[in-house]
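haha ok so turns out i had the wrong file open the whole time. this is the CORRECT one, sorry everyone. sequence first:
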Amino acid sequence: MVTAVELLAGIVYLLMGGDLLVRGSVALARRWHLSPMLVGATVVAVGTSAPELFVSVQSALGGHAGLAIGNVVGSNVANLLLVIGSLAIVCPVESDDRTQVGDIAALLVTSAAFVLFAWSGGLVFSEGLILLAGLPLFIAHKVRHARRGLLDREAVREGRIDWVLGLPSRTWLIVVFLLVGAVWLPLGANLLIGAATVAAERLGVSEAVIGATMVAVGTSLPELATVLVAGVRRQVDIALGNVIGSNVFNVVAVMATAIVLSPGPLEVGEQFRVIDFPVMLVASLVVAFYAVRGRAIRRGTGIVAVIAYAAYAITLFVVG
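then structure:
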């Protein structure tokens, strides 16, 4: 019972900390008169990956490689199957935004590079640096398209900035939001990691399984929430872009940082090579096919995707 409460508390602290950090950052960016599009393409996109970042980095520092890797891989699988599938059940997921071709390419390249590095059984410092080098490139890609006006300004303003409700207006309040968010994120990560480790022992499964399921779904809740809001508002382009961008950030920011800061190589368990990596790559290819071809992901496909995610999670518990 205590473990479940700690697990839930960790997720709540992470989500609230990430939310406050995003609100404070967006308010600060507005005070500095930065473009709403620029803020949406960088601050909000990075902010939704903050829970994964803190969990994976602290897991790596604490010697919990399974949790660190499982959180990233599981979050990416959850985003592609559970989040996009849920969105498709709400409304058809179809995009004619040609700028997302670059995002799709980044998704496939970063996912393939991550799996290639991990296939040897361990992730080392130099590989983390290579992945991390993709972060400024991807941000530059988003900013370049924002400046060229290839993204719809009103959609970004209403879709990404106005989702951040209750922005602080006073300087002291912005500072409070930033400080509290910065404190709650690591606090939530510590609670979640501790509870996840105990849960793995009690359930008789590996930390990688807990990381790829319970922890991953918990840290993916910001993406799920923003995507469902987008579905209700019929701003599907932004929703799809948020999921794809989040998956890229998870690899080139979250995973890369965890590898670089880890005191030693991150050991990659057999489970990842047999189950997680193939599922992540196949799901990425399927979403890429629909996005590039301009085909809509409709309700039936969405239901199949959600069922596929459930089957993936059950399989991990059975095998792990």
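The first strand starts at residue 122 and ends at 123.
again sry for the mixup
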